[in-house]
Design goal:
- The protein is of the alpha/beta class.
- The protein folds into three domains: about 120 residues, Ribonuclease H-like superfamily/Ribonuclease H (Nucleotidyltransferase, domain 5, 2-Layer Sandwich); about 140 residues; about 140 residues, no CATH class.
- The chain contains 19 helices and seven strands.
- Helix 3 packs across helix 4, helix 5 runs antiparallel to helix 11 and helix 16 crosses helix 17.
- The longest helix is centred in the middle third of the chain and has 37 residues.
- It is globular, with a radius of gyration of 28 Å.
- The relative contact order is 0.07.
């Protein structure tokens, strides 16, 4: 008799339900979110025939947390069901739209009973790649937080100190530049910045880590800060300067976090066996490679073909056909982190002759930049899946054969 288990996850407790192949409830329990509570579902599974050779599959609405981590260590097949999908299944069991934790656990168990083949099992990733995933995602979050903090500070400076923004408008880092943060900390208002002497500016430039062109940079900043501009009343300006210092501390903290997490993610990624294969691709360095590996994992049975990986990353389009209506659109439901890493990867890969030629052909066919870049990402993902499966490095000629070779092969 086949048995299926569903777990309704919550912050402090979890509901467990077990059903047989006909949907009959075999057992239920409410467990606490601690080590003692974890043993209860394991005992319940064992009582219903769970063994190492025939493990009972389990469904839960999350793929993170201590409960999932401990269950994955036992080697049981675990399926992370999207809460939106589980809500649709609930309507099959409760027309009146009633809801309870026990009902949700039963719904999850019945999902495996009826549609197990339609859902993906959590991959059996190694401990190293799980650690890389934690670091790479934290680094990506820190970068997004840094952008948000810099935008808040930029918006505030635009209200009372536009001259400072103009002084650093030519730099790529903008307000995240160490020199910009150092100078703004010393002079957060236009009045204080205008009083900075040449010697003080030289000291600030050195403090920020500049090694060359110190005098020229000090003179440039002195001239920029003394350029006449519109000003608020003195007390208002002083208050806005205090708010700037508060926003600046937040930006400095995020910048420091980005640097620390970047170093840790790169260090862990470089020790992984797949690092050499991933970084052999154009546009993939250690940091972007760590982000890609964090999302696809190192369990190669997770994606049996490149098509599944492309859909997971959002690179493959979605076709909608009904009668005579046919439309091909970009995929919206995807792994957002992998898609963000893919955008950077495809853009950096344009330095490769083959990737650039592929991109140019898509542009000449009438596609916009985003669509052509997404198509390039789709192509690169297929190559990455092949290289990781076959354990070979990326080959430019094989991945992007010259047009004349493609024409001859088609004619043959």
């Amino acid at each position: 008799m086949k048995v299926f288990c569903g777990i309704d996850w919550a912050s402090d407790h979890h509901d467990v339900a077990m059903v047989d192949h006909e949907g009959t409830l075999l057992g239920r329990a409410r467990i606490d979110d601690d080590a003692t509570g974890l043993q209860q579902p394991l005992d319940l599974l064992t009582a219903h025939g769970d063994t190492a050779d025939t493990p009972i599959p389990m469904a839960i609405e999350t793929s993170h947390g201590l409960l999932v981590a401990r269950l994955r260590e036992t080697g049981r097949p675990i399926y992370a069901i999207n809460p939106m999908a589980a809500a649709r299944y609930r309507e099959r069991h409760a027309v009146a739209r009633k809801k309870s934790d026990h009902l949700d656990a039963m719904v999850l168990a019945n999902i495996l009973r009826t549609d197990r083949a339609l859902h993906r099992q959590l991959p059996a990733d190694s401990e190293l790649v799980q650690a890389i995933a934690v670091l790479a995602r934290a680094q990506q979050d820190a970068v997004w937080n840094r952008i948000q903090a810099a935008n808040k500070l930029r918006s505030h400076l635009r209200e009372y100190f536009p001259g400072f923004l103009a002084a650093f408008a030519h730099t790529r880092e903008g307000l995240c530049l160490p020199l910009a943060r150092t100078v703004l900390t010393a002079a957060p208002t236009p009045a204080q910045a205008a009083k900075l002497t040449r010697a003080q500016l030289r000291s600030l430039v050195k403090k920020a880590g500049r090694k060359r062109g110190i005098d020229a940079e000090a003179d440039r900043l002195r001239e920029a800060f003394r350029t006449p501009q519109m000003r608020h009343l003195p007390q208002v300006e002083q208050a806005m300067g205090l708010r700037t210092l508060a926003l600046l501390r937040q930006l400095a903290a995020t910048c420091e976090s980005v640097e620390e997490l970047t170093a840790a993610a790169v260090k862990s990624f470089d020790t992984h066996p797949d690092a050499e294969i991933i970084t052999s691709f154009p546009g993939l360095g250690s940091l972007t490679g760590a982000r890609v590996l964090a999302e696809i994992g190192d369990d190669r049975s997770c994606f049996t073909d490149a098509k599944g990986l492309k859909a997971f990353a959002g690179a493959a389009p979605v076709t909608r056909a009904s009668g005579r209506s046919l439309s091909v659109m970009a995929r919206r439901i995807k792994n957002q982190r992998l898609a963000a890493a893919g955008y950077l990867w495809a853009f950096s890969a344009l330095s490769s002759p083959g990737a650039r030629a592929h991109y140019d052909r898509r542009r000449e066919a009438g596609e916009r930049h985003t669509a052509a870049q997404r198509n390039l990402f789709n192509r690169l993902l297929g190559c990455l899946h092949h290289c990781l499966t076959k354990r070979v490095h990326h080959n430019e000629t094989t991945a992007f054969p010259p047009p004349q070779f493609v024409t001859l092969a088609a004619a043959a």
